[in-house]
Amino acid sequence: MTNVLILGANGSIARVAIELFLKESDAQLTLYLRNSRRLKNIASNRVRVIEGDVLEIETLKEAMMGQDVVYANLAGNLEQMAKTIVEAMNATGVKRLIWISSMGIYDEVPGQRYSSILDSYRNSAEIIEVSDLDFTILRPGWFTNKDEIDYETTQKGEPFKGHDVSRKSVADLIVKLAEAPGLEIRKSLGVNKPE
Ligand SMILES: NC(=O)c1ccc[n+]([C@@H]2O[C@H](COP(=O)([O-])OP(=O)(O)OC[C@H]3O[C@@H](n4cnc5c(N)ncnc54)[C@H](OP(=O)(O)O)[C@@H]3O)[C@@H](O)[C@H]2O)c1
User: Fold this and answer.
1) How far is CA 140 from the centre of its chain?
2) What InterPro entries does the entry give (predicted)?
3) How many domains does the chain have?
4) What range does the domain containing 181 cover?
């Protein structure tokens, strides 16, 4: 049984992942979010909720106690968030991090120029990559709400394939990574729907 801490638990991917974790695994989930009233329809004895901001390091460290996996599903000041999360993980001895980023951070999308909109995605990924953590960074394409699990991955250094990917596909990969301790450690994966 894996203990998973989900940061930004009301995010659009996180909500789909929570549903899949409850359906497909026996993981114990700790949902960390700024406003717990936003969470709807999650009734399970495998779920615990902590209200907090990811930038509040003391609350974050408390939430990390006893966790096997941290899955960060965040938007906003990602650089500061990455720094705080790495520090809290180092302080509490939690090694495994699944970090949701975006396609394009390495200028790896054929036919698309790198845009500075991605700076906080690129810089936060770099903070994680130079840490000692067992990270997997996911770089999904554009999200769709299609009710399908259909994806492939590309490694850092390879061109990104495709264009979009369903939220359910990204959630499926997150559950697999959380449940299989050695999978794609210290890797950064593009995630797309095969064309
Ligand atoms: N849309 C796309 O097609 C696409 C494609 C590739 C990558 N991405 C990126 O993938 C990531 C995940 O996507 P998503 O759609 O699941 O994101 P989302 O729905 O925007 O969720 C992000 C979550 O981060 C939380 N958050 C922000 N600042 C926080 C803080 N200081 N402390 C705690 N929580 C905080 C927000 O919480 P509140 O509810 O409290 O605001 C929100 O629930 C995002 O960075 C997104 O930009 C998106």
Assistant:
1) 10
2) NAD(P)-bd_dom (IPR016040), NAD(P)-bd_dom_sf (IPR036291)
3) 1
4) 3-192
Cβ–Cβ under 8 Å, residues 140 and 176: no
Residue with tokens 């989930």: 29
Q: Is 170 helix (H, G, I), strand (E, B) or coil?
A: helix
* 149/173 Cα distance (integer angstroms): 9
pLDDT per position in the chain (195 positions), as tens? 999 999 999 999 999 999 999 999 999 999 999 999 888 777 788 999 999 999 999 999 999 999 999 999 999 999 999 999 999 999 999 999 999 999 999 999 999 999 999 999 999 999 999 999 999 999 999 999 999 999 999 999 999 999 999 999 999 999 999 999 899 999 999 999 999
Q: Give the chain's length.
A: 195
Domain CATH code at residue 32: 3.40.50.720
**For the chain, how far is it from start to end, CA to CA, in angstroms?**
36
Check: CB of residue 171 under 8 Å from CB of residue 20. Answer: yes
Burial class (CB in 10 A: 0-12, 13-18, 19+), 132: exposed
Any ligand 1 atom below 6 A from CB of 102: yes
- φ and ψ of 105, to 5 deg: -70, -20
Token pair 């203990």: residue: 3
**Which of 34, 146, 168, 170 for mutating ligand 1's site (highest number of atoms within 8 Å of CB)?**
34
